[in-house]
Amino acid sequence: MIMSIKIDALELNNGTKMPELGYGVFRVEEGAELEKAVVSAIKMGYRSIDTAAIYGNEKSVGNGIRQAIKEGFAAREDLFITSKVWNDGLTYEETIQAYEESLEKMGLDYLDLYLIHWPGKNQYMEPWKALETLYKEKRVKAIGVSNFQISHLEHLLENAEIVPAVNQVEFHPKLTQTELREFCRKQGIQVEAWSPLMNGDLLKNDTIQKMADFHSKTPAQIVLRWDLQHGVITIPKSMNEARMLENIGIYDFKLSEEQMDELDALNENLRSGPDPDEFNFKI
């Protein structure tokens, strides 16, 4: 029997509550296996599910969500569902249409959070205006961005009516994004981590392993706990039930201030994914 773990939530700048730990599905193919994983995640206690149009798996994610609701593991209003628009030069109208297509694929009436996936070369203002419309019409609970650097955010804020609720970026001990996190904090933008485990590369790090041994935890749990203690929302991905349970089991210990500093010191400004200033929408 799988025990359900309660995950704490953080309040976004519009008052919406977002779970601080969620379930990511990047690079997971459409199909029954993903549907089953989403059901399992919700049964375990995950309430935030993160996908994107470009992942090509919104249908399976939606099927899993609706199955979990049907089986009584959670009500829709207790879940926090995120998707992202792949804005490679989209117009205002095309962005609205993209949102509607995501809803249709997922079989949902609304999303809790809708993000612009990449800034591109100043390609985000029309999509942002569309997201503002969706928000004003109460078709989505919160809107935000992903992979935005300080320069992108400064330009967006100069021209936007609504401050993004979230900025989802690559974040882990090898890429601590200190200046960006401080900028977002001052603007009331919640930072969310993708690739929190650096595609698994961090799990072999000696410093992290020693800390895991000290706490009788796994390296993944150490890194995810580090995320939460920095006030960063995190969305680890796994299709393995044991690891999914491991990732959620981080509420029974805390890292000391010295340990947090030690992990911060691992920073090399090293990315496992693309640089947002150079990304050209080709994958």
UniProtKB/TrEMBL annotation:
Q: Where is this site: Lowers pKa of active site Tyr?
A: K84
Instruction: Report the GO molecular function annotations.
Output: oxidoreductase activity, acting on the CH-OH group of donors, NAD or NADP as acceptor
**Record Gene3D superfamilies:** NADP-dependent oxidoreductase domain (3.20.20.100)
Signal peptide span per the entry? none
NADP-dependent oxidoreductase domain sequence ranges: 21-268
Matches recorded under PROSITE patterns: ALDOKETO_REDUCTASE_1, ALDOKETO_REDUCTASE_2, ALDOKETO_REDUCTASE_3
Looking up SUPFAM superfamilies in the UniProt record yields: NAD(P)-linked oxidoreductase
What Pfam families does this protein's entry cite? Aldo_ket_red
Q: Its family? A: Belongs to the aldo/keto reductase family.
- Name of the protein this chain belongs to: Aldo/keto reductase
Organism of origin: Metabacillus mangrovi
